[in-house]
Amino acid sequence: MPLVTTTEMFKKAYAGGYAVGAFNVNNMEIIQGITRAAKKHNAPVILQVSAGARKYASHGYLVAMVKAAAEETGLPIALHLDHGPDFETCKACIDGGFTSVMIDGSHLPYEENVALTKQVVEYAHPRGVVVEGELGQLAGIEDDVNVSEDDAHFTDPDQVFDFVTRTGVDSLAIAIGTSHGAYKFKPGQKPQLRFDILEEVAQKLPGFPIVLHGASSVNQDDVKTINQYGGQMPDAIGIPEEMLRQASSMAVCKINVDSDIRIAMTAAIRKHFAENPTHFDPRQYLTPARDAIERVVSHKIETVLGCENKA
Ligand code: G3H
Ligand code: 13P
Ligand code: ZN
Q: Which pLDDT band, with edges at 50, 70 and 90, does 188 fall under?
């Protein structure tokens, strides 16, 4: 099956009260782990590539591997640029086989965010590519940008209608208390999300797909495994799964996960080397890593996203 945009996925997800998983990909094993899980559960899936991933693996390899996954699985798969930093990067992805791009102007003053996002939409739409914008700013680390808690701010629901109508974006990422990376809440802090903001945004934009970034849950068993086998991860706290289920049943149609995959891979590889210190064939340690990714994504589809059998 050729790659698809997210338009149909989001329409069905909104109507069905579920969300589609958007997972970051950096190499072949990650793509295979994710799409094997999606195939097993007959689920639509979004594979997303950050600017850092493009730099690491190169545009051409990633596009070719994602296309191969779509052909092999026959699933609806969208190839999405995650946190597009500028017009040029978005243009390169639109021209180069992506079906969806995010332009992240969330750090810019409002009018500049509107202007940049509109510019990307005007280039993308005539070429059949959809665009995600962002309003509000998450804390945490993405690529080389580290947004401190002080600089993060929630989305203002009074801005969303103006932003969406003036830019023409197809989906909107909002900030309601999630953050990027493995350390989302301080030890002892009770995880909380601003569902009141999500509710208000949904009222202002009826039927419009909302995106949740920074949505990893941080599996404590995986963190324990990493630390048991020589790692040194401080207490990491993610988004509780019941909160993600609640968001999926509301206007959130796309849930972004990267850190959970990184942590699961690292745990599997550390454990493998501890148990098999003589191994040096990458296939020996990348097999359990790929299996671990498949398990993480299966779990998300079954218990968090609700997109099983929605392909
Ligand atoms: O939100 C950012 C994603 O986790 C991608 O991370 O920019 O290090 O590839 P990266
Ligand atoms: P996590 O760091 O919570 O996995 O978030 C990933 C993300 O939002 C990618 O855009
Ligand atoms: Zn993100």
A: confident
Please tell me if the CB atom of residue 89 comes closer than 6 angstroms to any atom of ligand 2.
Answer: no
Q: Which of 82, 104, 258, 260 is catalytic?
A: 82
| Token pair in block for residue 215 | 């949505």
Which ligand number lies closest to the CA of residue 21?
2
Model pLDDT, residue 143: 65
Distance from the CA of 24 to the center of ligand 1, in angstroms?
A: 7
Q: Confirm whether 86 is a catalytic residue.
A: no
Predicted TM-score (pTM) of this structure: 0.97
Distance from the alpha carbon of residue 280 to the mean position of ligand 3, in angstroms: 34
Tens of pLDDT, residue by residue over 10-60, are 999 999 999 999 999 999 999 999 999 999 999 999 999 999 999 999 999
Give, for ligand 2, the residue of 142, 266, 305 to mutate: max count of ligand atoms closer than 8 Å to Cβ: 142
Beta bridge partners of 79: 47
